[in-house]
TrEMBL record:
It comes from the Bacteria. It comes from Rhodococcus sp. D-6. Belongs to the RutC family. This is RidA family protein. Its EC number is 3.5.-.-.
């Protein structure tokens, strides 16, 4: 495996993500702009949990297209519109709804959640970026 995830002593305890990723691979995969659009063109979910779940599925699809999985991810960035700390339950419900399906490590790779005023379309509540590192 080209990625080792860990949280050193003294970092925020019980975080849903690791604080550090160390990679030894030579090929980088960068995914940007993954939102909750449905592959079949049906309407995207309207609630945060549903959008988080579908956006993570779309990240998994992008990783797979590059020959990677979430086990190769060294960084996740979540952009969430109109963020308030009370939304963490909805956000984590979306993560947990698909974690097993997409083989998302628990805790997740290092991750940041950034609140934004808006994304490129009013219906989009979350956007995800991911970086993975692979051998060769």
């Amino acid at each position: 495996m080209s990625v080792t995830l860990f949280s050193p002593e003294g970092t925020l305890p019980n975080a849903p993500y690791h604080h550090v990723a160390v990679s030894t691979g030579t090929r980088q995969v960068h995914l940007a702009g993954q939102v909750a659009y449905m592959p079949d063109g049906s309407p995207i979910p309207t609630e945060l949990a549903g959008q988080v779940a579908q956006a993570l599925r779309n990240v998994a699809r992008g990783l797979d297209g590059a020959g990677a999985t979430f086990r190769d991810v060294v960084r996740l960035t979540f952009y969430v519109t109109d963020w308030h700390p009370e939304k963490i339950g909805q956000f984590m419900a979306g993560v947990q709804a698909v974690a097993q399906e997409i083989d998302l490590p628990d805790p997740m790779p290092p991750a940041s959640l950034i609140g934004v005023a808006a994304l490129y379309e009013p219906v989009v509540l979350v956007e995800i970026e991911a970086t993975a590192v692979l051998e060769g």
